[in-house]
């Protein structure tokens, strides 16, 4: 008989073995069930859902891609091309959604064997990133574990940490290491940087300038080569101007793309980063019209992101064309007049400061700008004197215009009951306490008194007549050698009235960045008198042209514009497209004067040209057409920081006029700042330019009329015109 203790141990061992077997059976059964479920699930996926998933793998994705269309062209008023699109060979690259940087680099290396690409646009950052990509392991080792740990410990987003780490790696790349990049490496980099500058499925311009026929052929022959996957040869276009006229504006290139300061603005309007956009003047002002509607294609991709088909969705439309109000023949002829006179002035005495001259001609009844001339003297790289186009200075640069504004002063006096029609005032030198004597040029002797009507005041350009109008507006009386106090409201009254003519306010020209000029303060009181004769506030040449147009047009101020039509893109390339929009004349306001008052000023301006004391009689009395106008000189000081003649006393000259007198077709303004530093010998170049410009207009108008035609004409060439006469 076994002892009781041994029996209990034996029973426990048997029980333990029984439990273990039971548990193992449960485990094996559970595993069996799991494998059964897995097999059933796999069977379900393969048998029941197999076709669905196969279709999903093969499913295509349609991705719309905008492609550029030719930009609208610009023509002059006669249909002569001013800005055109010239076709050029180009090489592009389109990355897939799944394309990796390493694949792009491989394509760039292969493409570099077929084309030449300048590396002048490669930046230091490009070289650093390229070196790091070529030597990733050794470059990353330059950053110590301590530096990595310090960045990792910063409380900033992970993306920012990575940016800081990348920047630190770049900093540690030495100039010596960058110098190891060969010329071949830099050419590859130049291509590679263009490939990586845009979005997937958006064509990037690799080269579109000076692509030789050989390069174009070599790349075209290998378009099916897997090593050049994504490369294509296309016909691109290049913006070409046939005129130096700056107001035509400029555009970016595919390389520069959208300016950084306007990136969000254009991207929100479905532009691509490398799109060409207008950056100045007409190209900028009419961007929405000139840009056109992009063609849209859909790249059909498979499940791996590879493009398997390209489907046209919208052919798009080329940009609309602009037809200007400017006649390029008239513009060219007037430019020559201004250039010749500017060179003549510069060669004369006391002319060290003269460098600009302006001439604006417009139709006073419609606001159409017929010519906008601005010329500036400069030096080329060899120090030789040249003349640059500075037409935009006509509406961005302002100057004291002198007596040309006296028509506005007289009309202001009428409207403010400060003077009556044919009223006689005494022209006499005025002396106020603390100021120099103020007088008319023709009457400088103190206490010399000359009776003068309003008509005579315009004809002879009486400063004192205008001074007395200003004092009457201010409610001030002249007392010899006493001070002159006028209220600030008097300045506001004068300026508000001048604004009706376009002086001191924007004209509304359809060009960006128009200046309004400088508005002086409201003290001392004598400055109100200077304001009345155009020697305080400053105005642009375009404002001056709008001012004289308002007088010529019986008091109606017209909005000036340089575009007269917007047309659909031409279909045949030989004739202008259908008119979409005609820019209609726009009246901005009518001045607060009666027709009788306006006609009185018109008569006075007519006398300036033909009267016995007219300041422009010598230039206009024998004109074969009727005309009227006003001359002006202004005493000014030249201010230009660091210039050797900063603070120098000088003279501005100006001229405004219109013709014919009874039914004006043209109004013109001439401005030459700092024409001389000698007030005793002021040249009459302003009057001479005005006469020559009016003569030229009527001469061209009277040429044998050509039959109206919508045909596109080549750019105006003075030599061609001469040969045809």
Automatic annotation (TrEMBL):
<dbReference type="InterPro" id="IPR036138">
    <property type="entry name" value="PBP_dimer_sf"/>
</dbReference>
<keyword id="KW-0812">Transmembrane</keyword>
<feature type="domain" description="Penicillin-binding protein dimerisation">
    <location>
        <begin position="68"/>
        <end position="311"/>
    </location>
</feature>
<dbReference type="InterPro" id="IPR001460">
    <property type="entry name" value="PCN-bd_Tpept"/>
</dbReference>
<dbReference type="InterPro" id="IPR050515">
    <property type="entry name" value="Beta-lactam/transpept"/>
</dbReference>
<feature type="transmembrane region" description="Helical">
    <location>
        <begin position="21"/>
        <end position="44"/>
    </location>
</feature>
<feature type="region of interest" description="Disordered">
    <location>
        <begin position="705"/>
        <end position="725"/>
    </location>
</feature>
<dbReference type="Pfam" id="PF03717">
    <property type="entry name" value="PBP_dimer"/>
</dbReference>
<keyword id="KW-0961">Cell wall biogenesis/degradation</keyword>
<feature type="domain" description="Penicillin-binding protein transpeptidase">
    <location>
        <begin position="358"/>
        <end position="691"/>
    </location>
</feature>
<keyword id="KW-1003">Cell membrane</keyword>
<dbReference type="InterPro" id="IPR005311">
    <property type="entry name" value="PBP_dimer"/>
</dbReference>
<keyword id="KW-0573">Peptidoglycan synthesis</keyword>
<keyword id="KW-0133">Cell shape</keyword>
<keyword id="KW-1133">Transmembrane helix</keyword>
<comment type="similarity">
    <text>Belongs to the transpeptidase family.</text>
</comment>
<dbReference type="Pfam" id="PF00905">
    <property type="entry name" value="Transpeptidase"/>
</dbReference>
<dbReference type="InterPro" id="IPR012338">
    <property type="entry name" value="Beta-lactam/transpept-like"/>
</dbReference>
<keyword id="KW-0472">Membrane</keyword>
<protein>
    <submittedName>
        <fullName>Penicillin-binding protein 2</fullName>
    </submittedName>
</protein>
